[in-house]
């Protein structure tokens, strides 16, 4: 404690001491939360206002705010890295649950695509820079630098439990979190307006179409700056196609920064962790079948819906899409139920230790699922209340019901796994049982020969340092781990199948397969303005849910 007090304004105290320091820690957290709330509200106000032409907030106002926020985060990250590197006692421990390699690897993958998107943006805005504000070109340049610096920062510091400059670190992390959320809001707004513009172009009046055109440009410069060249169109279409990767990058980074914020000033008791051996067969085969089939359905859906004007082709594409998703969601629901049943026979204790990573995982799973729940319930109401009902409506209703069921059962399955003790901690054997594991490679029949025919137990001198052991107890003890390994292997097979299935269910809506816009039932029931707004708001949460489910399955089972 004396060493910690020498470099920290907030010395650590054991749990038995008075709670005054804990109260001050909560006060520091509250101050950083208030800072984040005010910045988030300001960013949300500007982003939402900048999407409408009649409001006197232009897109370059939004870009200016986001640029300033990203520059502040870059400066703070440099300060953090330099400060912690110069102080040898700045990071006394690391959270082994935070920032696993696969999560950081996924962050790097999304960062690469985000950088490509920024290059496309720079090329697009540079095509007519003479009639645009300079901030539109500066913004993607700063965003590219921000992505590089933040990715490096999270790669090397995601596990840190910092013990210097606690309040400054908390405020800096909250600033980073808010900046990522603001960039996410801006990207979602741009992508939603662009999708609405491309999907509803044929179904709206000229006046609404003109409004969508202006909203898509987010400024009155749409009529002054025309993108007529082929290279300009490539840049424009390219960065809109890469928006899903940038959206997922911002959400991944926000989740990792939040865990770092929770770990500021934290001391961790390190526990041993079990290393799983990757012995998948059935789960990965079935998952690959679903993945490859889903990619084929996606390609056919895009070709028939977007390239063909015939209604029969559109109906065939919707039927194929719904049948595939019904089969996939049904299988996923069944395996999740099976995994939850297996947990009823799992003897591992529940992990009741404080774990900010697990708390965040549960909150994100439950919160992100609300987006898909909302879309499904809106679809159910529209289908039941609409007439006439055809085969596509029946498939759509089944799809909506299975979507609700699959999200529910999968959340239960994943959350159960998150709250279980690691497998290695599931050894509750007494002293003589622990010693028996040393006899794993001993011939059981040879041991039995040393037992009298009367069935009496071995004498204490027979096995040095152990109690009397009956052969049946020996056999039962040596065979018990095999049963546990079988159950855990089965859970890992289930998780591998769910992982690959969630990946294809993320890819399909992220890359354009959105039947909510192509099915006329909901569009006719709710109208041309309400239904697209519902989908644009809720669908990004559903897409993020799939990615976070993949992350949670990797963390718990694989």
UniProtKB/TrEMBL annotation:
Keywords: Cell membrane, Hydrogen ion transport, Ion channel, Ion transport, Membrane, Transmembrane, Transmembrane helix, Transport. Residues 1-21 are annotated as: Disordered. It is found in: Cell membrane. It is a multi-pass membrane protein. The keyword Ion transport applies. The chain crosses the membrane at residues 30-50, 62-82, 102-125, 137-156, 240-259, 280-301, 321-343, 363-385, 490-511, 531-554. It comes from the Eukaryota. Its main location: membrane. One of its GO terms (cellular component) is plasma membrane. GO terms for molecular function: proton channel activity. Residues 1-11 have a biased composition (Polar residues). InterPro entries: Otopetrin. Belongs to the otopetrin family. PANTHER family: PROTON CHANNEL OTOP, PROTON CHANNEL OTOP2. This is Otopetrin-2. It comes from Pygoscelis adeliae.
